[in-house]
Amino acid sequence: MVYNRKWSLKCVGVDDILTIISAWQRTSLMDSISKRISDVYAKVAVSMTITTITDVLAFYTGTVTSFRSVQYFCIYTGATLLLLFL
């Protein structure tokens, strides 16, 4: 079985997507799309930052294992999440 790294990165952001959708549903339908998007990101920015930081720290914590494959995976995934967030 071949492991696909892209799926692991997509699954990490699911909590942020649910937060964005929830905030979007609470915006006014009468506002313009740009206003609604602005309101959504203003509401979810802090929670997205916190979840991303904790995800990156969790993966970097995995680098202390003795298994080289797990170390490489955790380094790769932690760095990718950090770069995607910036």
TrEMBL record:
Membrane protein topology class: Multi-pass membrane protein
Parts of the chain that traverse the membrane: 40-60, 66-85
SUPFAM superfamilies from the UniProt entry: Multidrug efflux transporter AcrB transmembrane domain
PROSITE patterns (alphabetical): SSD (PS50156)
Stored Pfam families: Patched (PF02460)
Protein origin, superkingdom: Eukaryota
InterPro entries: Patched_domain-protein, PTHD_SSD, SSD
Domain SSD intervals: 1-86
Keywords for the protein's UniProt record, in alphabetical order: Glycoprotein, Membrane, Transmembrane, Transmembrane helix
Compartments where located: Membrane
GO annotations of cellular component type: membrane
Family as reported in the entry's similarity comment: Belongs to the patched family.
The protein's name: SSD domain-containing protein
Organism of origin: Muntiacus muntjak (Barking deer)
